[in-house]
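Q: A reviewer asked whether we had any structural model of the full assembly, not just the individual parts. We don't, so I'm hoping you can provide one. Inputs are below.
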Amino acid sequence: MTPDDPGRRHIDIRVPVLARVEGEGSLEIRARDGVLEQLQLRIFEPPRYFEKFLEGRGWEEVPDIVARICGICPVAYQMSAVQALEQAFGVVPDDWVNRARRLIYCGEWIQSHALHIHLLALPDFLGFDNAIALAGTHPEVVRRGMDLQRLGNDLIRLFGGRSVHPVGVRVGGFHRAPDPEAAADLQRRLEQALPRAEALVAFLADLDLPRDDQDFISVALRHEREYPMYAGRIVSDHGLDIPVEAYADHFTEEHRPHSTALYSRLHGRPYLVGPLARLNLNHDRLPPRAAAALAASGLHLPSRNMFHSLPARGIELLQALEDAHGLLADYAPARQPHAGVEPRAGEGFGATEAPRGLLWHHYILDDEGQVRLARIVPPTAQNQARMEEDLYRSLEAFGLHHDDDALRLRGEMVVRNYDPCISCATHFLKVRVHRDGEEPR
Amino acid sequence: MEPLLKVIGIGSPQGEDRLGWEAARSLEGLDRVSVVCLDRPGPSLLHALEGETAVVLLDAMETDLPPGCVRLLRAADLITGGDGLSSHELGVAGTLALGRALGSLPGRLWLIGIQGRGQGGLSERERAAAFTAVRRQVQGLLQEQATGAPPGAKARDRHADPANGQ
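A: Here is a predicted structure for the entire assembly that you could use as a starting point for your response.
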């Protein structure tokens, strides 16, 4: 390598921090003499504020407040919260409630994964600037994504009353049970969508994804029978197997000067949550059609290639469709769609699998059921250290001789693998570059 | 009788972003008009447009016009090529561009924008004047629909509503 070698040039890619509640990202890349010296991913995460907002609020308000944390995965926040509050109050919902909760959660996975795959990720892998350009050439691909997203939204609406920030969820269960006719209609639509989801998995399996194996720790819930979503123990592929209550004994969060989001570590190491981690740890829990689609895809698990998050998301979408279809098959409305709740002083923990990974809640309540302490650990914070680690390895493997635009695109693709909210922010990256002796431009 | 026009109020509960919702609700009860309100729908806006023939979107807007000013635009005026747009949280213009690429937009589609004031919000008088102007615009479009006038005959160019002194 010579001094004129583009791989040895000095690189400074700086992105100003942007402030928006959906999870803003900024990226700084600095390289000298062909070596990455500094790489920082900055994220603003709104749950930090919500924890404080929750203090002093009554238990009935919590599901509606936490739903506002995220417009993409409000159900996840509601599900982790109601689990924790029910544990604190000693409430045990019946099977109808548990099935209904899994159904509304399936809706969220379907809509979130459909949106991410078709509108966010695919333009990268098919060589388009954005989904609009992709739709111009492959309208059938984008239309499939929109149709699946709509189906997921309608499933959320069936139980939640509306698809964004649903209002049907309460501690103990639901405010009302959907009509059987509406449930039957949705079940028919789910059945019609199953072949399209299977085709989606095959389509994703045919993509020529970058090959970049890395060593990382996968963390996810694991359930006795189900693919993890609404319940389970927290496990890793490095031997961790703990109840949800023990999370804080093993996972730590730390502040870093360059980011308002906390960095999570498992026994001091970065780790991965989300579709690929879940599939790595739970592919033996897939229902039959999703398992068959996985087998036909040729994807070998566990995978160490983060770009396999894309097909993993497709398989999870099919899994959620199949699961919801089965759960709705014998649906009947409950006379009482929620358990009775008597607030009392106590402490509770909840953990579920948001579309982008493990979401952990902890509450302490007083004897009137008012929140005294709330702690929420979202998947984005858990993935942040892993994302930076991934960016280091991916950009070095990609090659620093590439120009700034190519480096930025690869960095964005890496980040997009993890989280739709952060992916959203990275689309707005405004890169300023300066090389030695030059002013930033 | 079937509605001739669907009005979709777009917004959120926050501040002036409610203007689209409030303007839409002020039209409830108008003959042959159906009204729905959507909370930051993003690409899901396309689902609300599906199967419709004539739609008016109502949304708060930020321009250099005076607070309370109302503008009627054809959807085509809004649609860009999508350069630089996030493919995730699409705004109205990006979503309409996506809808056009998919061939799923209604044949007749307009947007009425209402200029907010930002801090402090519109005064009651400004708000009432703006909603009156919106109603007048919608009634005009309704008339076009009833008489079968060409789509957007009165909205061929961007213009401010004369009721607001523009």
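A: Points you may want to mention in the reply: The longest strand of chain B covers residues 54-61. The interface with chain A takes residues 39-41, 43-44, 46-47, 81-83, 85-90, 94, 97-98, 101-104 of chain B (CB under 8 Å).
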